[in-house]
Amino acid sequence: MASVLSKILGAGVVIVAVGAAAAWFLTKPDPHPDSYWANLGTPDLAKGEQLFWAGGCASCHAATGASGDALKVMSGGRALPSPFGTFHIPNISPDPKAGIGGWTLAQFGNAMTRGVGPNGEHLYPSFPYGSYARLPAKDVNDLFGYLKTLPASQNIAPPHELGFPFNIRMAVGGWKFLYFNDQPRVQLASADDKLKRGQFLVEGPGHCGECHTPRDAMGGFLPGKWLAGGPNPEGKGTIPNITPGGDLGSWSEGDITNYLETGFTPDFDTAGGSMVEVQQNIAHLPKGDIEAIAAYLKAVPSVK
Amino acid sequence: MKFKLIGAAVAVLCLGMGAVTAQETPVAKREALMKGIGGSVAQLSGIAKGDKPFDAAVVKTALTTISTNIKAFPDLFPAGSEANSAAAPAIWENNTDFRAKAAKMGADADMVLASMPTDQAGVQKAMQTIGANCNACHQTYRLKK
Known about the structure:
Chain A is mainly alpha-helical. Chain A contains 12 helices and 5 strands.
């Protein structure tokens, strides 16, 4: 009798252990191998700067209210409120202690494209690696090179304030298992080079979907709602639907381009809230890139 | 029966008042002022971009509307007028700064009026001076509805 019980218990322990091992395997941090980040050559700093503006690094990593040259000081320290708690944005300036001056390209690249921190830990997807995953290694190299040219800051941001279970980093592995990929967000009916460029900019560095796509309770994008807007995850108000079926339906490509260049809507309202900084970042891009973004936004599936 | 009549009368009265207040609420008034500013900026932008010819009278009217409307604007935010509007809570939490930003735009419009633009390039400069105020305030004080 005792032996039957112990057998059942033993089997139970084995099942739990196998389950845990499987869960670990499916959700462990998964960086690219070092070879992926090797032999990328000298970074193209001009391209790196364009990616810096396209990626909106300053909108989170510069100090609150920064403008002009202060936008290039990546001191961190802003608070990013969310339904899961408050994230405190880290310092990514070249300071070797407070910032990322001591990081290798592989460490930076795996943070950007795999959501894996310099010690092999999961990063929270408040850092939009779910979008940045679409950057090729060469772009990451250019951006890293550019970031290294910016001023160092010794500011150290406080730790994130997250409730249970979101304060358990391993749980991010489950989120990645469910939601993380580097595939196109939508299939375009036809895609010329301009549309492809727009798709890269919006889905990749621009990380537009991180705000403009509604999420489920666990923070994953709702299927079939790409760029369809919804409640503002950072607080009051709503995020507009920027598919052709939403607020941009009546805008021409030229209207969208003009808005991203100047901040004025076709009826001379302006950007508001966090979109003000986004628009000012995008305005640094070459006109061709802004037109590509506009073309892509007119081509994505319409969501009402 | 009497109660029904009274009820109907009250309902009609409420509807009537609703129709009146919809025109006169601070929200409707301040949104009308902003629409006026938007329309004026549109006029200036048309000239700045060269879509419309330079017209001193149009420029002067637009600048005057901007100046007048933005000066009246910050007085239209009584306590409790946040509902059903794009006004961010920061307007009431940080009212001194909100008023300072409106005053700055008024001063900028007056400055441009004092040395009226005389050509397209002048209007382009005026657009930069005045336009920067739009974003600067909307970033903090306007919510997307």
